[in-house]
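Much of what follows relies on a compact textual record of a protein's fold. A record is reproduced here so that you can trace the correspondence yourselves:
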Amino acid sequence: MSVLTPAVEPAAEARDAPTARRRWLEPAAVTLYFTALTVVMTWPWTLYIADGINPFGDVVLQMAILRWDAHALTTNPASLFEAPFFYPYAHSIAYSEHHLGQALTALPLLLATGNPALAYNFNLLLSFVLTGAFTYLLVRDLTGSRAGALLAGTAFAFAPFRFMHTGHLHMLSTQWFPLALWAVFRLSRGPERRGLYLTIGAFALVMMGLSSVYYTMFMVVVLGLYAVWRLWTTWHSGELRAWWATRLRDK
């Protein structure tokens, strides 16, 4: 028996290797698709990623905030909201979106180059890629359809509303909606890998809170409504009553 064992294990590993590769092939292909589509749909933005800015919206203000965030985070984080704007009033960053989520995302670029235009454009383009990829993840999981997920991701990521707000980074931070919903849906399906999905959901909610105050309020409402609906359906299906009865019996 011990003689045959070494011959079996390599064969099993060889069978598992293609499965592992296929597991990563789909997310890699989807990410590549949305990256390429972002380049095409926003062309020629990528050509001027380091020095081009949108003349509409609040781009100059937001670049100043990104630069200040990077400075404050690396020198005195406690002074984050004390930007040198609107003197002599205090807490001036609180008068607008603080864009801390976007600053953290582009922090290596800001520290390496000190270029807020590059940081702004990187966040802008990344939001298209992640919105599409995370929407694909959500719809693929809910429907099982790759084509439907690809269509949903494309429609959401490149909706006219998002192009209307290329001058407002906080309004482009839509990627955290589908990621949070996917994590919550997964979390509600059962105890398997619950810690992982809870961490992902919390991460998405925190990143939304750091990226857009507007969208954070929307997300809290959506997740709250889903939690109420889930409790209602679970109670009427008998699952929650059975769980509660088991807990009481164990006590």
Q: What stands out?
A: The radius of gyration is 23 Å. Residues 1-8 have pLDDT under 50 and may be disordered.
